[in-house]
């Protein structure tokens, strides 16, 4: 007789965890938004000015990346900077090939004239933290091996400027920007140079609720249920949100002034649930004399630029997404 499995945890329509350890990530929310979480197949032909391919970068672990290459043009006098991307999803959901990322990172690759390399991160609870951090750092070391000529990937070998490598991450991917940059500060990456880090609406929180968590409106991409449950499933067993990965400005984390961090562009949405703790990170990095800039998107909520429906229907969301991309472009251009 087959025992029926029992539901242990459910997170806002995104994830269900059962007592046998199995995880179901089938979207059960409004069907009209499901397309944003659908995978987009890689295409090596240029479509709307960008080609994509999936590459396995570690045969032993199976770690993969998706590469976005903007179509070469006669105005490209120099090689293109590389943007190493870490997707969001509270460390528990989403993939590098989801439509929401494809839609924005094809646009970013074209606008900035950069090669985007997005990592297929391992997900919790099957792979709790620091697994995703390890994957992000492994991807950076793979780029170093390409720069050194020890590995080969035609698109990157032919077009990439390894002297201008940037980290970018959405939401929980923003946490990885900090963590991977901090690790990178302890190793010799040459001839690769880590030129900057761009945490976009990073998932920096504390155990104690912030004022913005209690007062700001929830959004489709971030609810308190998601904050609490995803991090409960993702952090090492027995740890709280004060863990260094989720609270790098806290007392449990390494002192920020002891870290060798690249220049940072912290992107914050004015109406984000976790705005207050993101701003704590900003103030702490400034106090530690780090090179950090702040880009605030007025009137916007968490990860607004990934919401294709809002991008199409709401002129303000479209306008602020353009401003965000232009701000990222300006930061990359000067580093």
From TrEMBL:
SUPFAM superfamilies hit by this protein: alpha/beta-Hydrolases
Top-level taxon in the UniProt lineage: Eukaryota
InterPro entries: AB_hydrolase_3, AB_hydrolase_fold, Carboxylest/Gibb_receptor
Alpha/beta hydrolase fold-3 domain boundaries: 83-305
PANTHER family for this protein: ARYLACETAMIDE DEACETYLASE (PTHR23024), CELL DEATH ASSOCIATED PROTEIN (PTHR23024:SF135)
UniProt family annotation: Belongs to the 'GDXG' lipolytic enzyme family.
Protein's name in the database: Alpha/beta hydrolase fold-3 domain-containing protein
Origin species: Hevea brasiliensis
